[in-house]
Write a structure and sequence with these properties.
464 residues, alpha/beta, Rossmann fold, 3 domains, seven-stranded parallel beta sheet, six-stranded parallel beta sheet, transferase, UDP-glycosyltransferase, transferase activity
């Protein structure tokens, strides 16, 4: 009899790694019955003919969001105290005081943070969230689904959403092993792990150490190092098109060399459009010097702004737009769904451009997988005024301390040096590929092509 595994999608984030890669195919080959326990509005049955059990109850206890917001702030306060830092509280977002409802919520959160910023207070908040969600109707709803379908494991693809709390608690209370996957390289220092499953899967030894460092309630024997499916497609040569074919498909000039500008979300880089303009101006200057260059602009899939439009139109002689192949099924950032086709598109952009330029993005790892450099902008724009976030803050974040050396990425710290820096990259005078590969190994792990296989081997261990 096949073992039934629930692949739990609390939001759309997990689709990329666990529905659109070879992950399911490998699980099928091992003889598992894979069922997607689907909390999203994206139907895996309709789109891929995958088995799914839909969670239609999306209710949270009325107080859960207040306590989870407080939990994050308390946890970050504790990190600051424990590690003698001030950087952790830069991960928080300002409270909203607009309207009576938001005012009262924010005041309540502030009171909780004031009273509970201690180990004892943090434990109280963690336990309170569990008590609240066990009283919630979603808990009983999910418990009944589990009793009907009887999976041998619940694998949660993302530990961040509040929507994951009740389903994981229901599984644990029924004695079903629960596992979560840390899906991003910056999750742990940001205090975003809201669920407390039986086991955790992480990318690398580095991330395991982080998990033990930041989540004192987790023991080493609960953690498995697997790698991440996120980068597997970059090592799959069957999806790489010829340069001629790729250029023809996207109406690119075969005689030009292109630089990829990878856009950021508006929170990470609120003035991102002006860095695109700077790159375009540098390209125009270098073309006057005898180069034949263009820019491929790939926007951030979850950026809903129109802030780039004027820049793209103004410099349309050098900027070519290739949009990511993601599908919006809602209005929030975690309701923009990736597609299998976008894996191939992203890999081909990496393969057929000279390097990538952006602000603090993990695209550094995508490009280094193709032996290409990454240039990080790290200077202020003149449009920066009070109330607009300085992008330099990104490079102070904890996950950037994983760099083995400053040469693991290329940084442009002076707008006036951008053209010279780009020229040096194109001429082969500077590169971060060698040190970037070391960084890749630290964060992503040593065997990036084996992540899906390693996850299934770990599932074997847990369910045996």
């Amino acid at each position: 009899m096949k073992k039934k595994i629930f692949i739990f999608l609390p939001d759309g984030v997990g689709l990329r790694n666990f529905a659109l890669t070879r992950f399911k195919e490998l699980g099928d080959e091992k003889g598992y019955e894979i069922v997607y326990w689907n909390n999203t509005v994206f139907s895996l049955k309709e789109n891929f003919n995958y088995k799914e059990v839909i969670i239609e109850n999306h209710k949270l206890h009325p107080l859960t969001t207040i306590y989870t917001r407080a939990r994050k702030r308390v946890e970050l306060n504790l990190f600051d105290k424990k590690f003698n830092e001030t950087v952790y509280n830069t991960y928080t977002f300002p409270h909203s005081y607009k309207g009576l409802k938001n005012l009262l919520k924010s005041i309540f959160v502030n009171i909780l943070v004031l009273l509970c910023s201690s180990d004892r207070g943090f434990l109280y908040i963690r336990n309170k969230i569990k008590k609240l969600e066990r009283k919630n109707t979603k808990y009983e709803y999910c418990k009944k689904q589990l009793e009907i379908h009887k999976p041998v494991m619940v694998f949660c693809t993302n530990p961040r959403p509040t929507q994951a709390i009740a389903p994981i608690l229901a599984a644990q209370d029924l004695g079903i092993p629960t596992v979560t996957f840390i899906f991003s390289w910056d999750n742990l220092p940001k205090a975003t792990t809201l669920i407390e499953p039986d086991y955790y899967m992480v990318w690398s030894e580095y991330m395991k150490k982080e998990l033990l460092q930041y989540c004192s309630y987790v023991e080493g024997n609960q953690i498995f190092i697997t790698g991440t499916p996120q980068f597997e497609s970059h090592f799959s040569m069957n999806i790489i098109k010829s340069r001629k074919s790729f250029f023809r498909e996207h109406q690119l000039d075969l005689h030009k060399k292109y630089i990829c500008f990878s856009g950021d979300d508006v929170v990470t880089s609120p003035l991102d459009q002006y860095y695109l303009e700077d790159l375009a101006l540098s390209v125009i200057e270098l073309n006057k010097q005898g180069y034949n260059l263009g820019v491929i602009y790939r926007k951030c899939p979850v950026d809903f702004t129109d802030r780039y439009v004027a820049i793209i139109e103004k410099y349309n002689s050098v900027i070519k737009v290739i949009d990511p192949l993601w599908v919006p099924i809602g209005e929030s950032w975690n309701e923009i769904m990736p597609t299998k086709e976008d894996f191939a598109l992203q890999a081909n952009i990496c393969e057929h451009t000279e390097f990538v330029a952006n602000i603090a993005s993990s695209m550094v790892f995508d490009f280094v997988a193709h032996n290409k450099s990454c240039l990080f902008f790290n200077y202020e724009q003149p449009q920066l005024i009070k109330g607009i976030r300085d992008i330099g803050q990104n490079y102070n974040y904890i996950h950037f301390r994983s760099m083995p050396s400053i040469n693991a990425a290329l940084f442009c710290k002076d707008k006036n040096q951008l053209t010279i820096t780009i020229k040096a990259i194109l001429d082969g005078e500077i590169s971060n590929v060698k040190e970037g590969k070391k960084w890749f190994e630290i964060v992503v792990g040593l065997n990036p092509t084996e992540a899906s296989s390693n996850i299934w081997k770990t599932i074997d261990k847990i369910t045996s």
